[in-house]
Design brief:
With about 190 residues, this protein is an all-alpha fold. The protein is about 45% helix and about 0% strand. A two-stranded antiparallel sheet has the order 1-2. The N and C termini lie far apart (about 95 Å).
């Protein structure tokens, strides 16, 4: 039944059932999205490679990668060095710097000589040569081949090519397998 024009009870009922006017205690009025921006993998790898190159360039250009020259007094034996914590500490820091330089140089030489290698700092690597990851192609058409004929061991693309494979004369299937390098030679 349609509401009467002068009756406000219908509007009061609508206002009472309106969900937009209900308070929402589960939402914080002061909440704002985070200003921190997430980085994608390309940005992370680029940043790591820049950092690695910067460290290598800094160590090569600074005096930390060169050994400390011996003073003339130490070389002639005129002064006896006192054993102390400072000298031991400098030897440890120098050894650590030398070790990090050696590691960075080996990583750089390996990456320059044989292309990218998989390390903790480099996620690029050569494509997999595992047989499960290699794509198979049709021996007749050259299209991707999801099927293999169990009788002739030829790979085929669809049912139409399968009919062609089954209608091949006796030695033709062996020639296709030989072209692919999958033929069997019995001696």
């Amino acid at each position: 039944m349609a509401p009467i024009l002068g009756d406000d009870s219908h509007q009061q009922l609508l206002d009472q059932l309106d969900l937009t006017l209900m308070p929402r205690p589960f939402r914080n009025a002061h909440w704002r999205p985070s200003q921190r921006r997430n980085k994608n993998i390309k940005q992370i790898v680029a940043e790591a490679s820049r950092k690695e190159a910067s460290v290598l360039a800094t160590q090569n250009n600074s005096g930390s990668s060169t050994p400390h020259p011996q003073s003339s007094a130490n070389a002639t034996g005129a002064v006896t060095p006192l054993p102390g914590a400072a000298q031991v500490q400098s030897n440890i820091t120098q050894a650590a710097q030398n070790l990090s330089t050696i590691v960075l140089e080996r990583n750089l030489q390996a990456s320059l000589s044989s292309g990218p290698i998989a390390t903790y700092t480099n996620i690029e690597s050569a494509p997999s040569l595992h047989p499960a990851h290699q794509k198979h192609y049709c021996d007749i058409t050259g299209l991707p081949a999801p099927y293999t004929d169990p009788k002739s061991r030829l790979r085929y693309h669809n049912a139409e090519v399968f009919q062609v494979v089954r209608s091949l004369p006796q030695g033709v299937a062996e020639k296709y397998l030989e072209a692919r390098g999958a033929h069997v030679v019995l001696k």
